[in-house]
Amino acid sequence: MAPDSRRRRWTAPAVAVAALVGLGLTGPAVAHAASPLTVLAAPKPTEKELRKQLDDLNTQAEILTEKFNKARVDLDRAQRAEAAAARISADLEAKVAPARRQLAALAAANYMSGGPDVLFGSGGADGLSDTAYLAQNQATVVASVQAEIDKANKAKLAAEQRTAQVAQAKKQVENARTTARNKIAEVQKQLDKLTTTHVKDPHTGLSATVTGSGLPARMARKALTKIGRPYVWGAAGPSTFDCSGLVVWAYAQVGKPGLPHYTGDLFELGTKVSRGSLQSGDLVYFGSNLHHMGIYLGGGKFLHAPSTGDVVKISELSDRSDFAGANRIG
Prior knowledge:
This protein is of the alpha+beta class. Helix content is 57%, strand content 11%. The strands form 2 sheets. The chain has a 6-stranded antiparallel sheet, covered by helices on one side. A two-stranded antiparallel ribbon has the order 1-2.
């Protein structure tokens, strides 16, 4: 029995090692399995994806804005209904107040006289005294008006509850709209960062940065591709330009053709913008008669086709003393 026992004790480790080898779990393999995994960073969204997000969020914000407008109208109606119910209740209380006071006075007089005997005599109907008859009439008036008061108070309570419900709904919609706007701002920030263009004018040595993803900023980027092209009066591209012709050509390249080739008409379009609120792609105008214009880039720089003998170039806005206004055509 002893030899068999020793053989079993020596063969068990060998079987165990063989099993580990067969499973691929020997020392080096186990160490390899325990090595940390490499986590790949999520890919950044593309411009197309960000624009889709922005469109969806803007649609959501528009829906929420209309819900907010409806809640605001509903709240106004509920508040007016509550105020009307309160006025009715107050008017009825005022109507019954004299009868209440008279009843109180009669009750006090009866108490001071020492008992109910003063209410009985030969003066009133059914053997009641004049005082008792008067008290009965006043009590009837109070009871009649009280029914109206109860009805008015019930309506007032319902109006108050409706006002509270609508106010809560308005608050919820307003919070949702704020959240949507914050998301829009965040996506717009990502989109602007993704669509930032730096350019240097070899002719003037000035550098500018165009930011934004909207139509005006895209138009400005197209116009920048024409730096160095000569000024020709009345020209609107693709090789020569005058000041408004450069704008008309650049807008046509980004899907907005047909703009008027005249500074005065261009100035009447879009939205007016103050000098302190200029963004990439806004149009800037000069002279009391708007005889010249350019495209604002950012950082106080603008792009323009100046005059005969010159070329499309970047200039400092501060160099112009005849700034007349700006607008944004989206």
